[in-house]
């Protein structure tokens, strides 16, 4: 396999051996894309997406009622903060942590369905050969 050209290195993820652009999205329980940020090069970590997006500011600006506030359940790659929680990781989890992680993993499946719908309706987004930037006419 040849090394990617200079411009191709921008989006080439050597670990997965493919070109990629990453997006961050928030999907509501009814399947609506509420927030979309990107693209960023596939070489960047998910935490970079969060740091460069306006998501945390948008979440903090939402109205609260007493102790009720909105929280996003996110991928474990995101660190926990006042706006995002994720599943518990590790081999020494207590019963409550295990139960929480199992229940919430089912919720994440519905988010993946939305991504599947995008690929189904716009198949070119999943065509790896088309993800080589600066080569298309």
TrEMBL record:
Keywords: Metal-binding. Its cofactor is a divalent metal cation. Coiled coil: none annotated. One of its GO terms (molecular function) is metal ion binding. The keyword rRNA processing does not apply. Residues 3-125 form the DDE Tnp4 domain. It holds the Pfam family DDE_Tnp_4. This is DDE Tnp4 domain-containing protein. It comes from Lagenidium giganteum.
């Amino acid at each position: 396999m040849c090394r990617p050209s200079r411009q191709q290195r921008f989006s080439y993820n050597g670990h997965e051996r493919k070109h990629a652009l990453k997006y961050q999205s928030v999907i509501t329980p009814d399947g609506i894309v509420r927030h979309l940020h990107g693209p960023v090069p596939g070489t960047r970590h998910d935490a970079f997406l969060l740091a460069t997006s306006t998501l945390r500011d948008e979440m903090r600006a939402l109205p609260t009622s007493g102790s009720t506030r909105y929280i996003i359940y996110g991928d474990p790659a995101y660190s926990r903060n006042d706006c995002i929680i994720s599943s518990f990781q590790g081999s020494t989890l207590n019963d409550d942590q295990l139960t929480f992680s199992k229940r919430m993993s089912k919720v994440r499946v519905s988010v993946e369905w939305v991504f599947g719908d995008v690929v189904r309706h716009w198949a070119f987004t999943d065509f790896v050969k088309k993800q080589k930037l600066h080569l298309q006419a």
